[in-house]
Amino acid sequence: MYPNIDAECARNKITLYRLAEMLNVNRKTLGKWLAKGSIPANKLLEMSEIFNKSTDYLLGRSDA
Asked: Where are the beta strands (DSSP E) in the chain?
């Protein structure tokens, strides 16, 4: 559902398991968020910091 998050994981060589660890959640929870499009705002902000990208980019709302 979020190709830019997948792309950033690949670009930074971070598996979804590792991303889940970095967000202090289990892999299953992260998978549900990504599949259903329901990432909590605080975790989206954490991802933004991890990847050094805007939340709009991670959500596919912008190209940069």
From this structure: none
